[in-house]
């Protein structure tokens, strides 16, 4: 079984880019409580982004997810999420995703600038860092966790704006269940010969 241990957030939404905020997840359960605007939803969004690469809804292609450079009095803000988890195979893994939001003359520009996986070499005890393209990382993390991306997105780290999907119309619900349960992998059989 895979478990999430710690997460560092900096430069994401209201989390200051100059300060490292570390959240420790306790076993078997961690409760996240706080007043409105404290960052509870941002923590879940960061977990989901770390594991699946999916930006939260209404993030405007990342523009409203990274700390606004204008608030910091800068032209550029860098954000980072580091997630330490124990993979399904039992090894410790650190997933690092780094981002940048730059204020251009007339618009903001969002960019995912780095995706790295860190593990420990069991023979030497040294850190091993592998740099990934975002798309590769988005496939690698769910595989390491032993959980499909669909389950991570729609069940484990479902965003509060998307949590009502089980109450949607039957067509949308069927598509979501097909995605979560990988039903599209199986073809329809019109007849079975025994």
Radius of gyration: 19 Å
Q: Give the overall form.
A: globular
**Secondary-structure class:** alpha+beta
The run of helices and strands is EEHEEEEHHH
Distance between the termini: 38 Å
Written description of the protein model:
The chain has a six-stranded antiparallel beta sheet with strand order 2-1-3-4-5-6, with helices on one face. It has 194 residues and is α+β, with helices and mostly antiparallel strands. 23% of the residues lie in helices and 27% in strands. The protein contains four helices and six strands. The N and C termini lie far apart (38 Å). The longest helix is centred in the first third of the chain and has 13 residues, at 40-52. The chain is globular.
Question: Which labels suit this protein?
Answer:
194 residues, 6 strands, six-stranded antiparallel beta sheet, alpha+beta
Layout: helices, strands, pairs:
Layout: E1 3-10, E2 21-24, H1 40-52, E3 76-86, E4 92-103, E5 108-120, E6 127-131, H2 134-145, H3 149-156, H4 170-180
Antiparallel strand pairs: 1-2, 1-3, 3-4, 4-5, 5-6
Give me a quick take on this structure:
By secondary structure, the protein is an alpha+beta fold.
């Amino acid at each position: 079984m895979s478990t999430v241990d710690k997460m560092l957030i900096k430069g994401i939404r209201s989390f200051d880019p100059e300060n490292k905020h570390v959240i420790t997840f306790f076993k078997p359960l961690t409760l996240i409580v706080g007043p409105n605007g404290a960052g509870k939803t941002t923590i879940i969004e960061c977990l989901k982004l770390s594991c699946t690469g999916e930006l939260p809804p209404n993030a405007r292609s990342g523009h409203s997810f990274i700390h606004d450079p204008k608030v910091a009095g800068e032209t550029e803000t860098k954000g980072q999420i580091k997630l330490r988890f124990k993979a399904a195979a039992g090894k410790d893994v650190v997933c690092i995703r780094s981002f940048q939001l730059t204020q251009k003359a007339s618009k903001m520009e969002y960019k995912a600038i780095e995706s790295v996986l860190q593990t420990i070499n069991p023979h030497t005890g040294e850190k091993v860092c592998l740099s990934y393209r975002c798309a590769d990382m988005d496939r690698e993390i769910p595989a390491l966790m032993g959980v499909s991306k669909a389950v991570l997105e729609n069940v484990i780290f479902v965003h509060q704006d998307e949590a009502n999907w089980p109450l949607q119309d039957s067509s949308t619900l069927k598509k979501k269940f097909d995605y979560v349960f990988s039903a599209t992998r199986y073809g329809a059989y019109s007849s079975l010969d025994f």
